[in-house]
Amino acid sequence: MQIAERLLSLTVDKSRYLRVPEYDYPMLKKGIICEKCEQEMMSPVARHLVCPSCGHIESIVNGVMRNVRELKMLFPEMKITSAIVLDWCGLDSVKCIRRILMMNYEKIGRTSGTFYVEK
Questions:
Q1: Helical (H) or strand (E) element with 108
Q2: Domain total for the chain?
Q3: Is residue 83 part of a domain?
Q4: Cα 41–45–50 angle (5° rounding)?
Q5: Which of 103, 107, 84 is nearest to 94 (CA)?
Q6: Which residues pair with 50 in a beta bridge?
């Protein structure tokens, strides 16, 4: 019993490997990153993104949705808006971002306070 109690007293509640470094939105590099080689993807060409380093081709929809999932994972409390996704992805077409978000999320609101939630 004493050995069991001693072992329980030595148990660590939190793993030291679960520590996450502190970060905030402005300090992070923005843009769509290649999922193969982790280099920044080039501007869209014919509805696709092309990696200048490895040549990987990905649709804009898949690239934006992957970045939205990353944004939600890093900042779960942040509301997903077209302006934030536009900035996070480093693209220049808000119309394209809105179309992608409306295809995959439910739109809440109609004016400047519009945000998107999972369907």
A1: strand 105-108
A2: 1
A3: yes
A4: 30
A5: 84
A6: 57
DSSP 22: -
Stretches where the chain sits below pLDDT 50 are none
pLDDT of residue 112: 84
- Domain carrying residue 107: 27-118
How far apart CA 16 and CA 84 sit, in angstroms, is: 32
pTM score of the predicted model: 0.78
Amino acid of residue 86: L
Residues 6+ apart with CB under 8 A from 59: 47, 48, 49
Residue 19 and residue 83: Cα distance in Å, rounded? 30
| Residue type for position 62 | N
- Looking at residue 7, its pLDDT comes to 85
